[in-house]
Automatic annotation (TrEMBL):
The lineage of its organism: Bacteria, Bacillati, Bacillota, Bacilli, Bacillales. Transmembrane segments: none annotated. This is SIMPL domain-containing protein. It comes from the Bacteria. Gene3D superfamilies: Protein of unknown function (DUF541), domain 1 (3.30.110.170), Protein of unknown function (DUF541), domain 2 (3.30.70.2970). InterPro entries: 26kDa_periplasmic_antigen, SIMPL/DUF541.
């Protein structure tokens, strides 16, 4: 919510003059993602824990090797989750042991977003039976963050001059204070869901566009 108070009382900073116009400026820019982060892996179940652990480990090893065959460095492949759980059935209110479940999820980072579908298909072909998340981000968002910040400052200045012209007062050319509002560490990741196509067709996954936002609170002196 925007506020345009003509302050005659104490301001947020002791350095701000008592006659000020306070405005909030918001800016945003869009950018094409250049990095994909995919969480996928293997879930195995059965009554023999050692057997399903071995099956799981073999499948994960195959997936890792297949990812490296796509020129994804091993350091871009990281275990995200590993769990062993007891699986029970409930019959007539009674808990009956059924077996175990082993879950091993990998997080894979790829700098060629156009190959995300191929990455998913390759992993599935080599044993993956879980794809839990696909995110698209920007490797170096600073350029776009600065653009959004510039837009936010320009909009704040336009608002301040509109208020000053309407009131018939003279606005100082330079703000007395500028405060950047907190923002996330980076652009909000774009979430996608893989839709598995026929084996002869690559899974279509679209990276879309990311929106990077910034906001500032600006105080101008007027006379």
């Amino acid at each position: 919510m925007y506020g345009y108070p003509i302050n005659k009382t104490a301001s947020p900073s002791n350095s701000i003059h008592s006659s000020t116009i306070e405005v909030l400026g918001e800016g945003s820019v869009t950018a094409t993602p250049d990095r994909a982060v995919v969480d996928l892996g293997v879930v195995t179940e059965g009554p023999n824990l050692q057997a399903i652990q071995a099956d799981n480990a073999k499948a994960i090893s195959n997936i890792i090797q297949s990812m490296m065959s796509l020129n994804i460095p091993r350091e871009k492949i990281q275990t995200q989750d590993y769990r062993i759980e007891v699986v029970n059935d409930y019959v007539d209110g009674k808990q009956i042991f059924r077996g175990y479940k082993v879950t091993h999820l990998l997080q894979i980072t790829m700098d060629h977003v156009g190959q995300t579908g191929k990455l998913v298909d390759t992993a599935v072909a080599n044993g993956a039976n879980q794809v839990t998340s696909i995110q698209f981000t920007i490797a170096h968002p600073e350029f776009y963050e600065n653009q959004a910040l510039s837009v936010a400052i320009q909009r704040a200045r336009q608002k301040a001059y509109t208020i000053a012209n309407t009131l018939g007062v003279t606005l100082g050319a330079i703000p007395s204070q500028v405060q950047e509002s907190p923002r996330p560490a980076g652009p909000m990741p774009y979430m996608a869901t893989a839709k598995f196509a026929a084996s002869s067709v690559e899974t279509p996954i679209e990276p879309g566009q990311l929106t990077i936002k910034a906001a500032v609170r600006v105080w101008y002196l007027f006379a």
